[in-house]
Every structure is written in C-alpha cells, then in structure tokens.
Design goal:
Number of helices: 4
Helix content: 25-40%
CATH topology: Aminopeptidase
Strand order of the largest sheet: 1-2-3-4-5
Number of domains: 1
Low-confidence stretches: none
Structural class: alpha+beta
Order of helices and strands: EHHEEEHEH
CATH architecture: 3-Layer(aba) Sandwich
Strand content: 25-35%
Distance between the termini: 41 Å
Length: about 150
C-alpha cells in the first residue's frame, strides 16, 4: 500500500536526502547538483502554484515506526493561466517511481493526487511530456496531443 501526500514548507529538511536520491535517478539530461536542488526545493515548497507530492510505502509493523520510510516516488507539477484553455492548466514537470515499485500503482496514485489538486484549482487540463511512459498515461485516459521541443540555454 502507498500513501501520497503533498509536501509543505516544513517538510524540506525531513525529505531532502531521500528526494534528492530519487531526483538523481530520474535525471537524464542534467546531472543534479545538491546545492541547486536545495534552492529549487525550497522555492517549490514556497510556491502556491507548485505541487510536490511524495509517495511512501506503508509498512504496517510497529517496529517500522522508528525507521525512516523510504520514498516510493515523487511528482512535481505546476499550474498557471493559459489563453488557449480559457483558464488555468496544470503541467506535470517530473514524476518518478522507484524502479523496484514500478507497475504497482504508485504512479497511478501520484497522478490521481495531482489531478485532484488541479481540479480543486479549477484547471482545465493536465498536460505532460514523456519519452518512455506513453502507454502508462494512455491507460490513465491521457491522449497524445502535441510534440515536445526544447532548447537548452
């Protein structure tokens, strides 16, 4: 069983190490730097238009209460107004599930939590870019909508 929760400002210190470990596994275009990560983490947690959720495995045993629970994954997204949608739109920037837990519903749970947040904010749609997980998003009801281009600065 997995629990997904949105992080708040007070969570920065308690999850930074475990979250950075996942970020380092996720990154393919950049090599994450810890100091830059910490600046970004604090900025994201202070930004009302950002949603940073983490998934925790539930152990269930009493002896587990004394151990830190490893993160099963994380999801980072934002929302903003957009002219084309006649309102706000939400965008999943990063989502990562630990390799040993992929296929077990962690990603589905994080996407559902992000979608709930976006719906409460009256977002008109949730968008994202993916290279490797198109079948996963299609199974969640997402449809192919556009090509993704980028230019490194």
């Amino acid at each position: 069983m997995v629990t997904v929760r949105r992080l708040g400002r007070s969570d920065a210190d308690s999850v930074a190490d475990a979250l950075f470990e996942l970020v380092a596994r996720f990154a393919t275009s950049f090599a994450p730097e810890r100091s830059a990560f910490e600046v970004s983490l604090r900025a994201v947690l202070a930004d009302d238009s950002a949603w940073l959720g983490v998934a925790h495995e539930e152990d269930g045993g009493d002896e587990a209460a004394d151990r830190p629970v490893p993160l099963a994954g994380y999801c980072l997204g934002f929302d903003h107004p957009a002219f084309y949608a006649n309102g706000r739109v939400a965008w999943v920037e990063e989502i990562m599930v630990r390799e040993d837990l992929q296929g077990g519903g962690v990603g589905r749970s994080m996407m559902a939590a992000f979608e709930e947040w976006a719906a409460v904010r009256d977002d008109r749609l949730v968008g994202l870019a993916t290279r490797r997980a198109a079948p996963f998003y299609a199974a969640l009801g997402y449809e192919d909508s556009a090509a993704y281009f980028r230019k490194l600065l």
